[in-house]
Amino acid sequence: MLKPLRQGLPPLDPAAVSSAASCSLPARYEAVREARRFTRGTLEQWDVGDRFDDICLVVSELVTNALRHALPGDGGMDPSASVRLHLMRWAERLVCAVRDPSHETPVARAAGDHAAESGRGLFLVESFSDGWGWHPLAGTLNGKVVWALFRLPPGA
């Protein structure tokens, strides 16, 4: 069973970030591959220990969800729309955050919904991260951010 979806910021002080990286991703499905490549390169520099594969999988799921569910259009991609991937590291924590232009609340399907061919991405995010949630953007920014938190081994 999935934990209730948390609306709010990750429980970390943004001023204490030790490393950060971000990239803009175009509104096309090839962006998932680009996100994985960017994430792998960043994580190799940061030495995140045994969480490497978990983080890469979760980034793929978050970006896929943003492209599939959050971009405007009738199933086709709007070339002017984009998503943004942020990776932020604290001493023993890492957050992956994907910003998209939608105001829709992310909806997780139950793991037992075997009839669905898709829709289990947030279940994977829940399974492989140590916490996740979302928050709407404020001010002049439109959309939302969906984030996942990872605990890192001490000294990683």
In terms of DSSP E residues, the strand content is: 25-35%
Number of domains: 1
Helix and strand string, N-terminal first? EEHHEEHEE
Tally the helices: 3
Instruction: List low-pLDDT spans.
Output: none
**CATH C-level category:** Alpha Beta
The CATH topology label is Heat Shock Protein 90
Task: Assign an overall shape.
Answer: globular
State the share of residues found in helices, binned by percent.
25-40%
Pfam family, one: HATPase_c_2
Organism: Streptomyces shenzhenensis
Domain Histidine kinase/HSP90-like ATPase: 25-131
InterPro entries: Anti-sigma-factor_SerPK, HATPase_C_sf, HATPase_dom
Give a written overview of the molecule.
This protein has 156 residues and is an alpha+beta fold. It has a single domain, classed as Heat Shock Protein 90 (2-Layer Sandwich). The protein has three helices and six strands; from the N terminus they run ββααββαββ. Strands 1-5-6-4-3-2 form a six-stranded mixed beta sheet, with helices on one face. Strand 3 and strand 4 form a beta hairpin. Helix 1 runs antiparallel to helix 2 and helix 2 packs antiparallel against helix 3. The longest helix has 19 residues. It is globular. The model has no long low-confidence stretch (mean pLDDT 82).
